Amino acid sequence: MDCTILNNGVKMPMEGFGVFQVPDPKQCEQAVLDAISAGYRLIDTAASYGNEDSVGNAIKKSGACREDLFITTKLWVSDASYDKAKQAFESSLKKLGLEYLDLYLIHQPMGDYYGAWRAMEELYKEGRIRAIGVCNFYPHVLADFCETVEVIPAVNQVELHPFFQQENALKLMKEYEVTPEAWGPFAEGKHGIFTDPVLTEIGAKYGKSAAQVVLRWNVQRGVVVIPKSVHRERMEQNMDIWNFTLSDEDMSAISKMDIGHSEIVDHFDPNFVRALHGRFK
């Protein structure tokens, strides 16, 4: 598997395992155990997923060397302030059973996320987090943020898949040396992505599935991917993307699939923003 070098020199795997929407403790723990056994070293969770404990249990049971793992979790909206971020970090670290985090992300640009970032900068400088970053920071938000803070985010985790490619966002991230990371790399199954004729035809040339083509397409754009599955066979298939390269023609064909907006979530909807603020109240 390839790795990318973040803007602070930290090495991060280009493919990881996500645990969003795996709330059942036993299922989540087994999925992470299977993922680590299958070769995944980047594990991505979040306080709001409610499964940090399960991820931590799996890490402990896996027997994997801590230094070989790259563990990510995220700060939720309700904890977006200087003081609450410090408390939330300690809570996440305890649930995960770890002494440090590899990557800590602000989950949404909501609440006092500038105050939260100051707390994260301090934790980073203390060596308790190897890298800090953000999620769902659209270009205008990311630009303002990078022009304001002391430590530029190492990562911006956003929705990135063939139907919402966000080329302008990727261009801006490159300007600020922020590594893009894709949540929902399979578009949550929308548009029949796993049987799409364009993706299927491309995959047939390499003996690969549409899903493998999608993941390969993103990593060739410099995007870290974190596909999720609770099935060991699919985990292994998702990892099997490092022995082929899409041609320029393939990349061009996929570029034409972009519809230019998300059909999963509307971050610009005030009702959505209010819902996130009230989620854990």
Largest sheet geometry: 8 strands, parallel
- CATH topology term: TIM Barrel
The CATH homologous superfamily: NADP-dependent oxidoreductase domain
Radius of gyration, in Å, reads 18 Å
- Please name the CATH architecture: Alpha-Beta Barrel
The number of helical segments is 11
List the domain count as a whole number: 1
Helical content, roughly? 40-55%
Structural account:
The chain is α/β, with parallel strands linked by helices and 281 residues long. The protein has one domain: TIM Barrel (Alpha-Beta Barrel), CATH 3.20.20. It has eleven helices and ten strands. The protein has helices at 25-38, 52-62, 82-96, 113-125, 139-146, 167-175, 197-206, 210-220, 232-239, 248-255, 270-277, and strands spanning 3-5, 11-13, 16-18, 42-44, 70-75, 103-106, 132-135, 155-159, 179-183, 224-225. It has an eight-stranded parallel β-sheet. Strands 1-2 form a two-stranded antiparallel ribbon. The longest helix is centred in the first third of the chain and has 15 residues, at 82-96. The relative contact order is 0.13.
